[in-house]
Amino acid sequence: MSVAFRRESDDEHLEPSFELPIPPGPNLVTPRGLALIANRIAALEAVLASFADRPADDSAVKAARRDLRYWQTRQITAELAPFPDGETVQIGTRVTFTLNAQERSLAIVGHDEADPAEGLIGFAAPLARALIGAEVDEVIDFNGREGAITIVAISVVPDSQKA
């Protein structure tokens, strides 16, 4: 029989499943970020326990296992960021600054706890990279513009303190 008439299994037509991408570079976290990772792992382990009666190839089981592998890897590779001194912008600080004549306030955190809508940006974000190391009243360049940002205030985020 010709290969053209052979029935292929349905599995051959499924989209391949990939692991969740791990951000490059160090996995710096605040104590809050480390606790968030532990909470995610506990929640995923509870989900997997509730899936005990499902077959191992169930898509929800596979997705939960994939997510659990990601978060376990993030926990294993987590490095607590140095405790911020509040004098310069660092991971674990909230910085108030002016950009485009508007005052903004953001906290610099680890990748996994970043939530821009809540004012939390990851330390590898372009804006965070521009801000890190700056001091109050310092004027820094950003996005190709000289003197685009003026640092107004820096404070240590309470949950970034040592556990």
Tag the structure with descriptive keywords.
163 residues, elongated, five-stranded mixed sheet, Chitinase A, domain 3, 3 helices
When the domains are counted, the total is: 2
Q: What is the CATH T-level topology of the largest domain?
A: Chitinase A, domain 3
* Secondary-structure element pattern, one letter each: EHHEEEEHEE
- End-to-end Cα distance, whole Å, is 69 Å
C-alpha Rg (nearest Å): 22 Å
Query: What integer is the average pLDDT?
Result: 87
Helicity, in percent? Answer: 25-40%
Runs in which pLDDT lies below 50 for 5 or more consecutive residues are: none
Structural class assignment:
alpha/beta
Largest sheet report: 5 strands, mixed
Assigned CATH class of the largest domain: Alpha Beta
Report on the structure:
It is a single chain. A five-stranded mixed sheet has the order 5-4-3-7-6. The model has no long low-confidence stretch (mean pLDDT 87). 28% of the residues lie in helices and 25% in strands. It has two domains: 58 residues; 65 residues, Chitinase A, domain 3. The radius of gyration is 22 Å and the shape is elongated. It is α/β, with parallel strands linked by helices. This is Transcription elongation GreA/GreB family factor. It comes from Novosphingobium kunmingense. One of its GO terms (molecular function) is RNA polymerase binding. It holds the Pfam family GreA_GreB. InterPro entries: GreA/GreB_C_sf (IPR036953), Tscrpt_elong_fac_GreA/B_C (IPR001437), Tscrpt_elong_fac_GreA/B_fam (IPR023459).
